[in-house]
C-alpha cells in the first residue's frame, strides 16, 4: 500500500522535473522541424531563468518576470537566426556560443546587479507563480488521509489532490502545448510548411514561400516555449536564480527530441521518463540497498546521463532527423 | 550589388579574425560600461596583469599551454567533420591517467616521469573520447550530444574517485597525495628566474612540439588526407574505400589524447603536483573558442591560445582589482569570440569583400 502513495509523490516530482524539459524539447521540435539545429537551448533556458528571476526580483511581479524570460529567449533566438539564417553560419557553433554567453552573462550581471555571488534575491509568496488549487482538492486530500482502508477510493483521491490539482499554471500550459503542437504541426497549413522547410526548403522557395520568414517564425515559437521553460525553473520550481541552474537540461531535451524522433506525443513520454529518472535519483540518495549497500551519491547523479546515452545508442532504432536540419539554405543566384 | 571577389590571404587569415576579436572586446567593453565600470581601466589592468611582469607572463604561458592542447583537440575532430565538445571531460580523465602513473613510481627522476605522464594523460583522455567515437561510428549517436553527456558524467565520476579513493587519510581538501618534487615537471623559473612564482613548466615545449606534429599529421600524412576527405565529403570518402567508422574512432581517440595532455601541465607540473578537484576549470571549453579563432590551423591555434591565455590571466587580475567585474566577464568575451569568428564569420567578410572588390576594380580602370 505504502508503495502506491510513495509512487504518487514520486510522480508528483516527476511532473515538476519534466516541465522545463518538456518545454525545451517542444521548443527544439519546432526549430529542428524547420531545419535549424538548436544546441543553444541550454543557454536559452539559463538566460530566460535569469531574466525572469531578475525582473521579478526588481518589480515583484512574476508576470513581468515571465515576459522578461521569454524576452531573453527571443533575443538569443534573434542572434541564432541572424547567424544561421541570414549569415548561413554553422548552427552548432552558434548554439555553443549562446550557451557560453548565457553562462557568462548571467553570472556576471547577477553579481553586478545583486552582489549575491550570481544569485538573485530570494522570491517569496506572490512573487512566485504559485500552485493552482482545483475545486474540492483540499477536501479530497483530507478524505484520502482518513480513508486509509479503501485503496480504491484513496488512490483516485490522491491522484486528484496531489497530481492533477496544485500544479502551476505553466505546468498546465506545458501539457496543453503537446496536443497543440501535434495539431499545429500535422493539421494546419503552417505546420505543413514548417515540416517542408525542414525537409526540402528548395521546394518551398520554388512555390514562392519565404524560407527565411518561416524559419524565423519557427524560432519565435521556440523562444516562447523555452523562455517559459526557463521562467518555470527560476520562479515556479525554485524561488530565484542560481548560477548554472539549467544544469544540462537543454542538452537532455535535445537527446529526448532525438529519442522521440521529432514527434510531440513521444516527446511528452520521453520527457516524463527523464523526469521520472531524475525524481528517482533524488529518492535513491542515502538509501541502503540489499546487496551493494549505500550507493555513492555521485553514481546516482550520473544515472540519468548514462541512461540517456544507453537509450540514444541502443533503443531508438534509426532516428532520422529532418533532412535539411543543420544546413543553411542558399538561394540560387 | 558588386561582384564578390575573394579576399587577399592576409585579410582572410589575419585582419578578419582580428576585427572579429576587436568586435567581441568592444561589446564586452560596452557591457562593462553598462554596469558602471570603466572599460579602458579594465583593459589596462588586464594587459598589465598578463604581460606586465615576469610572473604575469609566466601565468599567461601556463594557461596558453592548456589552450593549445584543448584547441588542437577540437581542431582535429573538426577537420574530420566532427564537433568534439568533450575536451573538458577528456582533460579531467587525463588527470587520472597522470596520477595513476605518478603515485606508484613516486620519487623517480622527472626526466623519466615526464614521458610517462604524457602517455598516461593521453591514454585516459583518449579512452574518454573513444566511447563517444565508437557510439557515433557504430550506433549513429550524435557526437555533440554524447561528448556533452560525457562531460557531465566525468564531473561526478572524478569527484567520487578523488574524494573517496585518492584522498589520503588526514587531508582535508579533495586532492590526491602529492607527487614528490623530484618527480614533478620543473618550472620555467628553475632555468630562468625572470618568471618569478609563475607555474609555467616544461610542458609548454611539448605543446609547441604538438603544434608542429599536428601540422604534419593533418596536412602531410596519409591519415590526415583521409581525415580531411571525410570532413569534406563522407560519401566520396566511402567510395574511395576508406572505412568511415574506423576514421571516426581513430580521430576521436587522437583528439581525446590531445585533450588529456592538459592534465600533464597541471597534475604533473610543479605548480599543483597532484590531482585536484575540478582542475581543468573550463580550459576544455576555451579550446572550442581557440580552435575557431585559429581556424583549426596550428599557427592560428598557437596565436589564439596566447590571446586566451592572456585573457584568462588578465581576467583573474581584473577580478582581483575590480571586484564588480568577475571572471565571468571573460567567459562572456570568449562566447562572443566563438560567435563572431565561428558562426557569424560572414558578417564582416561580406562588407570587406565589397570594399576590396571596389579597390581592385578601381585599379583595373
UniProtKB/TrEMBL annotation, chain A:
Q: Does the keyword Membrane apply?
A: yes
User: Which UniProt keywords are listed?
Assistant: Cell membrane, Membrane, Transmembrane, Transmembrane helix
Can the keyword Membrane be found in this entry's annotation? yes
Pfam family membership, one: BPD_transp_2
Major localization class: membrane
Localization recorded for this chain is: Cell membrane
Q: Which residue ranges does UniProt annotate as crossing the membrane?
A: 63-83, 95-114, 169-186, 302-321
Taxonomy, superkingdom: Bacteria
Bilayer topology reads: Multi-pass membrane protein
The region annotated as signal peptide is none
Q: What is this protein called?
A: ABC transporter permease
Taxonomic source organism: Devosia rhizoryzae
Supply the source organism's classification: Bacteria, Pseudomonadati, Pseudomonadota, Alphaproteobacteria, Hyphomicrobiales
TrEMBL record, chain B:
- Among the Pfam families in the record, one is BPD_transp_2
Q: Which UniProt keywords apply?
A: Cell membrane, Membrane, Transmembrane, Transmembrane helix
What does the UniProt entry say about where the protein is found? Cell membrane
What topology does the record note for this protein and the membrane? Answer: Multi-pass membrane protein
User: For this UniProt entry, which segments traverse the membrane?
Assistant: 7-36, 56-78, 90-106, 112-131, 143-162, 191-218, 239-263, 275-294, 301-323, 329-348
What name does this protein carry? ABC transporter permease
| Source species | Devosia rhizoryzae
Amino acid at each position: 500500500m505504502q508503495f502506491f502513495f510513495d509512487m504518487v509523490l514520486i510522480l508528483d516530482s516527476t511532473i515538476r522535473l519534466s516541465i522545463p524539459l518538456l518545454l525545451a524539447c517542444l521548443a527544439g521540435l519546432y526549430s529542428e522541424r524547420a531545419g535549424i539545429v538548436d544546441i543553444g537551448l541550454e543557454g536559452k533556458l539559463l538566460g530566460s531563468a535569469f531574466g525572469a528571476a531578475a525582473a521579478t526580483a526588481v518589480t515583484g511581479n512574476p508576470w513581468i518576470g515571465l515576459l522578461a524570460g521569454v524576452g531573453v529567449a527571443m533575443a538569443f533566438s534573434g542572434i541564432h537566426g541572424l547567424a544561421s539564417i541570414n549569415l548561413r553560419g554553422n548552427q552548432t557553433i552558434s548554439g555553443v556560443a549562446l550557451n557560453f554567453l548565457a553562462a557568462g552573462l548571467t553570472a556576471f550581471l547577477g553579481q553586478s546587479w545583486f552582489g549575491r555571488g550570481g544569485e538573485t534575491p530570494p522570491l517569496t509568496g506572490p512573487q512566485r507563480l504559485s500552485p493552482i488549487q482545483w475545486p474540492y482538492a483540499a477536501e479530497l486530500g483530507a478524505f484520502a488521509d482518513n480513508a486509509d482502508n479503501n485503496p480504491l477510493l484513496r488512490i483516485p483521491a490522491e491522484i486528484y489532490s496531489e497530481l492533477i490539482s496544485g500544479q502551476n499554471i505553466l505546468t498546465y500550459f506545458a501539457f496543453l502545448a503537446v496536443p497543440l503542437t501535434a495539431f499545429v504541426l500535422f493539421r494546419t497549413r503552417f505546420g505543413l510548411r514548417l515540416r517542408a522547410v525542414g525537409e526540402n526548403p528548395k521546394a518551398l522557395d520554388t512555390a514562392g514561400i519565404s524560407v527565411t520568414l518561416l524559419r524565423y517564425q519557427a524560432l519565435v515559437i521556440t523562444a516562447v516555449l523555452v523562455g517559459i521553460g526557463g521562467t518555470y525553473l527560476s520562479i515556479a520550481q525554485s524561488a530565484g536564480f542560481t548560477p548554472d541552474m539549467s544544469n544540462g537540461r537543454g542538452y537532455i531535451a535535445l537527446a529526448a527530441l532525438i529519442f522521440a524522433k521529432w514527434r510531440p506525443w513521444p516527446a511528452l513520454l520521453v520527457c516524463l521518463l527523464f523526469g521520472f529518472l531524475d525524481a528517482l535519483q533524488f529518492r535513491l540518495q542515502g538509501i541502503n540497498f540489499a546487496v551493494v549497500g549505500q550507493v555513492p551519491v555521485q553514481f546516482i547523479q550520473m544515472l540519468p546521463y548514462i541512461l540517456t546515452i544507453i537509450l540514444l545508442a541502443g533503443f531508438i532504432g534509426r532516428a532520422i532527423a529532418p533532412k535539411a536540419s543543420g544546413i543553411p539554405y542558399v538561394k540560387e543566384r | 550589388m558588386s561582384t564578390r571577389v575573394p579576399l587577399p590571404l592576409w585579410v582572410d587569415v589575419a585582419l578578419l579574425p582580428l576585427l572579429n576579436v576587436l568586435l567581441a572586446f568592444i561589446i564586452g567593453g560596452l557591457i562593462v560600461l553598462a554596469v558602471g565600470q570603466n572599460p579602458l581601466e579594465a583593459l589596462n589592468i588586464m594587459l598589465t596583469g598578463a604581460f606586465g611582469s615576469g610572473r604575469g607572463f609566466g601565468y599567461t604561458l601556463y594557461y596558453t599551454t592548456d589552450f593549445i592542447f584543448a584547441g588542437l583537440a577540437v581542431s582535429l575532430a573538426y577537420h574530420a567533420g566532427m564537433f568534439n565538445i568533450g575536451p573538458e571531460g577528456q582533460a579531467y580523465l587525463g588527470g587520472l591517467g597522470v596520477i595513476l602513473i605518478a603515485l606508484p613510481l613516486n620519487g623517480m627522476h622527472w626526466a623519466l616521469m615526464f614521458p610517462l605522464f604524457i602517455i598516461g594523460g593521453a591514454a585516459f583522455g583518449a579512452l574518454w573520447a573513444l566511447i563517444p567515437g565508437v557510439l557515433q561510428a557504430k550506433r549513429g549517436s550524435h557526437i555533440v550530444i554524447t561528448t556533452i553527456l560525457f562531460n557531465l558524467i566525468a564531473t561526478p565520476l572524478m569527484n567520487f574517485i578523488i574524494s573517496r579513493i585518492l584522498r589520503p587519510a588526514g587531508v582535508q581538501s579533495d586532492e590526491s597525495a602529492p607527487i614528490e618534487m623530484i618527480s614533478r615537471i620543473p618550472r620555467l623559473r628553475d632555468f630562468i628566474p625572470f618568471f618569478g612564482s609563475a607555474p609555467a613548466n616544461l610542458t609548454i615545449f611539448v605543446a609547441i612540439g604538438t603544434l608542429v606534429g599536428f601540422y604534419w599529421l593533418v596536412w602531410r600524412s596519409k591519415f590526415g588526407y583521409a581525415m580531411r576527405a571525410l570532413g569534406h565529403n563522407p560519401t566520396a570518402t566511402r567510395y574511395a574505400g576508406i572505412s568511415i567508422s574506423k576514421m571516426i574512432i581513430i580521430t576521436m581517440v587522437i583528439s581525446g589524447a590531445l585533450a588529456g595532455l592538459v592534465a600533464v601541465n597541471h597534475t604533473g607540473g610543479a605548480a599543483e603536483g597532484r590531482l585536484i578537484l575540478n582542475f581543468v576549470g573550463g580550459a576544455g571549453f576555451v579550446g572550442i573558442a581557440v580552435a575557431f579563432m585559429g581556424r583549426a590551423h596550428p599557427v592560428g591555434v598557437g596565436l589564439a591560445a596566447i590571446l586566451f591565455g592572456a585573457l584568462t590571466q588578465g581576467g583573474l587580475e581584473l577580478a582581483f582589482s575590480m571586484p564588480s567585474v568577475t571572471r565571468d566577464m571573460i567567459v562572456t568575451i570568449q562566447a562572443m569570440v566563438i560567435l563572431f569568428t565561428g558562426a557569424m564569420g560572414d558578417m564582416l567578410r561580406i562588407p570587406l569583400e565589397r570594399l576590396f572588390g571596389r579597390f581592385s576594380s578601381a585599379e583595373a580602370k
